[in-house]
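Researcher: Next entry in the queue.
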Amino acid sequence: MADIPEKSVLSIQSTVVFGYVGNKSATFPLQVLGFDVSTVNSVQFSNHTGYKCFKGQVLNSDDLACLYDGLKENKISAFSHILTGYIGSKSFLEKVADIVLDLKKSNPSLLYVCDPVMGDNGKMYVPEELLPVYMEKILPIADIVTPNQFETEKLTGMKINSVEDAIKAMEILHNKGPKTVVISSSEFAADGAITSLASTVINGRKEVYKVQFEKIPAIFVGTGDLFAACLLAWLEKDKNLKVAFEKTISTLQCVIKRTLDRARVLTGDGNNPTPAQMELRLVQSKAEIENPPHSYTAAVL
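Model: Structure for this entry, 301 residues:
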């Protein structure tokens, strides 16, 4: 077996030529935090789908198999982590499961971080047929999952209207396989705040944490991808879910606020920012990505 490079991530998700979503959102923070990143782009679009149009290509499962075969034949398929995000087809997702199992066979300590990107705000933006693949093939082999509230509800079959509901839902996900479950964002607080929750099982003992923060009235794209990447990095570096969770949310809030402040400057008073003006200010947030301010403290539940 080849030596496993330390801090090496195989990231399989979407990419764009312009802007920050998918691999474009995840690669820079991982590299800044000391990880080598190898990317497979499930789709390659000119820009994210929130613009008036987008053009590009979609990889199929044969394309993915071909790329992975190239890595294996050259004996460069050893990674410490695998990260997955947006995947648009059932066959592609099934091939991802095969690849994760193959990687874990040669490196049992490989950590698989899965962001099960399926939808948000009550609607799916991938085919419904991906849901059973996530439930039956992906969750049992994932070590860490980072769904949003909508995705958590889809994966567990239960509505989340309270912290108690969220804890029950995370328990359902733990029972399907992942040792660590993080609900990146949920909206059930009476004051309209966003609630993030994290749960992990260590030596049979469960730890659960909660962070709440104000909802910013704007649409950001690529934040879930950034969240999963930062969480992967800080969990590896700190080996502590509470600390990694706090640092990840602090990073996200810094990037979001910088993005919105800049968009408002570009737009001028009373005008709505364009999608291009709302692209994440990732490179400009390098200092905060490397050293997040301690802006949030996770409550122990």
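Model: The chain has one domain: 8-267+275-300.
Researcher: Noted, moving on.
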